[in-house]
Structures are given as C-alpha cells and as structure tokens.
Design a protein that fits this description.
With 251 residues, the chain is an alpha/beta fold. The chain has two domains: 169 residues, no CATH class; 78 residues, no CATH class. Helix content is 55%, strand content 13%. The chain has a five-stranded mixed sheet with strand order 1-2-3-4-5, with helices on both faces.
Amino acid sequence: MEDILAEIFYENEFEIVKDAGEFKFLQKNNQEYFFTASYKEDDLEGFFTSDKTDKMINTQGELNGKNEDINKNTSLIIYVKTNDLEEFFRNNKRIIYKIEEDEYYFRKYVIAYTEGSIKKIKNSKAVVQIIKEVLLDSERMDQFEKIYYEDEEFFFVIQLYVKLSFLIYEIADKPYISIQKRMKDNIVNRGLLNKYQLIHSWIDKNLSILNNEEEKQYLEQLKNSFLNTEKDEEILLNFFDELEEKTNEDS
C-alpha cells in the first residue's frame, strides 16, 4: 500500500519533503500538502492521542513556520489494512466519522484496504493508469452502486478518488445529468430516504469526480446541511421535499 501511494503521488508531481519512517510529508508546487501514515485498525480509537499523530502535528507546526499555506492546505491520508472491508467499516464507522470530521490541524481521510484489493494494482508499472481503468469500468460501477463491498479492488479505487483530491477523471460522450437528479434517482432506487450516513457517503464519493464547480458547491452545501444536528437548513429541507415528490411520482 505504501508503494501504491508513493507511485500515485510521484506520478502527480509531488515530492517528499520529510520521510520520518512512520509517516511521510509530501508537497506539490508549494500549494498542496499531504501526510501519509499507516495505522492499525486497533489504533484508530486512540488516533487523537497517539505519538504518531502528535509527531505529524508537530511537523506541520515546524513546516508552517516556513510556509503559512501548509496550515491551510494539508491533508492526512490514513491507510489501514483489514481482512474484511464490510466488517471494518461496520465496526469502525463511528471513529472514522469522528476522525474525518475533526476540524483541527489538517484534513484527515481514512482509506481501508485488503491484500486482495491491491494485489493487481501494486504489481502494475503504471498505477495511476490502472486505477483509472478500474474506475471507468461501467459494469463494475453499476455493481458497486448495488453492493458496496463485493468488488474489493473497485471499492479501494473509489476510496482513492474520493480521498485524494488531485485525482480526477472525465467520462466522454455521456449525456449530461445534473448531480441533483442523479442523487435523487440513486437514493430513491436504493430506498435510502431516511439513511443520512449512506447519503452523506454518496456525496463524498461524488465530490471527487465532479468538474462542475456549481454542482460541487451544491454538494458541499448539502453535505454541511447533513452535519447540522437540527436538520432544519433550507437546502436540506428543499432536497428532501423534492425527493419526496420524486418518490411519489415513481410509486
């Protein structure tokens, strides 16, 4: 997994600024900054108090003295090996949510993988190309929409595109369908009307693959509305009103 990430960052013109063994700090053109670090599943509960996390926070502080942008534009990629992806996310959903939604120090993203999910990718000589080919396989995408964890390799690749903001792709010759319509169709078809967390995950997945800034802004606003415990923000209410209308139309 470490080699896969290293190749992805290398092919996207990042350079290693600091290699501390247990974590790396990379940057691109003094504009984008990433920590990468491996954590064990058992370490996630103690993430905020671990020595490794403290060392990265201290490193960011030291580097920020030389470049203030580091404080605003740094993300941490936490990669965790597991034997069962579905069980991993079922058991760790709460702590992953807590880590990823924490606003302090830097943005944090958890990527889980199994040995099987990275087997072909790590043996490839062109990692970025192969993960793009995996992602653009429409049959695998359709199956993923039905059963998240069945295709472990595809699930792993989806995580990469969601969590690594610089990874983008375009699908040519496809009729344009607004993100609002695609999202409503997907939620209605899968019966997710009252499942906030799954809808929230769907939003995250699509934020990374959109190029239309207006649609990305809409999803960001909708995502923030889902995080509002009062659940009374106008954009969220409008969304569910329209979703209810669509549900009634389809029934």
